[in-house]
């Protein structure tokens, strides 16, 4: 894909890079602890098919929680909102993404939204397929279509690393199972979920997926309506209310665009009808968001009046 290097974007990336030393890489997943703290790259994919970039945008990283938006879109297409939201709520949470507390205290066993781990695990358990391989294959095909890139794969090393360390996620699954919210076999879902989080791509791919959401589910290159409009709208709303973990409110005020982050340092954002943006900066703040990625979006939002509010 032809993506022009852009001096203006490079300037903002250089400015944002100055805060990387205030964060740190996600060390609780051993495979992510190896990432370089001062990396930062960004690609902006416009809905007319043009693209600008800055930094090493070819560098691959795993989606982690960004995948939650994509699995949600697929499961909503498969089952419809009514069925999905019978099992998962639609409310933001002020708690960290891996917190278990609200499962006990609010509507026992039903997770508050699909962007926290508990909700995302329920969503993943609803992906259609006979076997685990069928399910992850189906999600991967969907994501390849969104990025219009057949070479996207799962990083086996990261998936294995996460599978071996995901004890809190397993605990949440068993707790929800006790309340009848979670119906699948826990280890099967953990297998699919850790592979889902380990789907690997670069900033260009991510920006292009963002542009599909910017066009309400229509692909800017192929013209295909991959996600129905209403489902794209639901996903974008969750990105605004819950996409940046428990920093979503502040993010909405300061930056004001639909976005979703992952602990590998990726952020997918979008400006409706204008562009998708893919950012990779592994140094994280205390909420688990890319510290330089958020700074970059602050600079871009302020300079180009991106807020949707």
From TrEMBL:
Domain of life (superkingdom): Bacteria
Mitochondrion is among the record's keywords: no
Keyword Oxidoreductase: no
EC number: 3.5.1.2
Example of a GO MF term: glutaminase activity
Recorded catalytic activity of this chain's protein: L-glutamine + H2O = L-glutamate + NH4(+)
A Pfam family: Glutaminase
Sorted UniProt keywords: Acetylation, Hydrolase
UniProt-annotated binding residues for substrate: 65, 117, 162, 169, 193, 245, 263
Enzyme class: hydrolase
Gene Ontology BP annotations: glutamate biosynthetic process; L-glutamine catabolic process
Family: Belongs to the glutaminase family.
Subunit details: Homotetramer.
Protein known as: Glutaminase
Highest classification ranks of the organism: Bacteria, Bacillati, Bacillota, Bacilli, Bacillales
């Amino acid at each position: 894909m032809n993506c022009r290097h852009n001096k203006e974007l490079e300037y903002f990336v250089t400015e944002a890079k100055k805060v990387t030393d205030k964060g740190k890489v996600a060390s609780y997943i051993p495979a992510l602890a190896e990432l370089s703290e001062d990396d930062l790259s960004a690609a902006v994919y416009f809905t007319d098919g043009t693209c600008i970039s800055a930094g090493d945008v070819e560098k691959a990283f795993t989606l982690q929680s960004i995948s939650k938006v994509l699995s949600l879109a697929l499961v909503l297409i498969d089952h419809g909102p009514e069925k999905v939201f019978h099992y998962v709520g639609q409310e933001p949470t002020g708690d960290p993404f891996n917190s278990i507390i609200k499962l006990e205290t609010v509507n026992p066993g039903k997770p508050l939204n699909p962007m926290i781990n508990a909700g995302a695990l329920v969503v993943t358990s609803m992906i259609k397929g006979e076997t685990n391989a069928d399910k992850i294959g189906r999600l991967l095909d969907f994501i390849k279509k969104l990025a219009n890139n057949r070479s996207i794969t799962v990083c086996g090393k990261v998936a294995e690393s996460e599978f071996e360390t995901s004890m809190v996620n397993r605990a949440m699954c068993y707790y929800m199972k006790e309340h009848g919210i979670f119906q699948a076999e826990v280890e099967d879902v953990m297998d699919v979920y850790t592979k889902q989080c380990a789907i690997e791509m670069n900033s260009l791919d991510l920006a292009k997926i963002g542009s599909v959401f910017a066009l309400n589910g229509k692909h800017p290159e192929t013209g295909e309506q991959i996600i129905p409009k209403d489902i794209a709208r639901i996903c974008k709303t969750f990105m605004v209310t819950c996409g940046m973990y428990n920093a979503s409110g502040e993010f909405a005020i300061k930056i004001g665009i639909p976005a979703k982050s992952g602990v590998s340092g990726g952020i997918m954002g979008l400006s409706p009808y204008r562009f998708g943006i893919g950012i990779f900066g592994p140094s994280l703040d205390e909420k688990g968001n890319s510290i330089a990625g958020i700074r970059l979006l602050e600079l871009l939002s302020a300079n180009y009046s991106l807020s949707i509010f």
